[in-house]
Write a structure and sequence with these properties.
Number of strands: 4
Strand order of the largest sheet: 1-2-3-4
Largest sheet: 4 strands, antiparallel
Helix content: 10-25%
Shape: globular
Structural class: alpha+beta
Strand content: 35-45%
Length: 57
């Protein structure tokens, strides 16, 4: 499921950050981030929007 999540981020113009592997991938634009969390078997368990690392502006 990582590949479809990464492809979706790239297709929508989000920069892909891999720092959360293997737990999650992040798609980032400016101060905004979408994280896709994965179970140990690779299935998507949660998707959360927010600001990058709690940035406030």
């Amino acid at each position: 499921m990582r590949s479809p999540a990464r492809s979706y981020f790239e297709r929508t113009g989000l920069q892909v950050w891999h720092y959360g592997q293997p737990d999650f991938l992040s798609g980032v634009r400016s101060l905004y981030e979408v994280r896709v969390y994965f179970a140990p078997d690779g299935t998507i368990t949660e998707v959360t929007p927010g600001t990058v690392m709690g940035a406030s502006g």
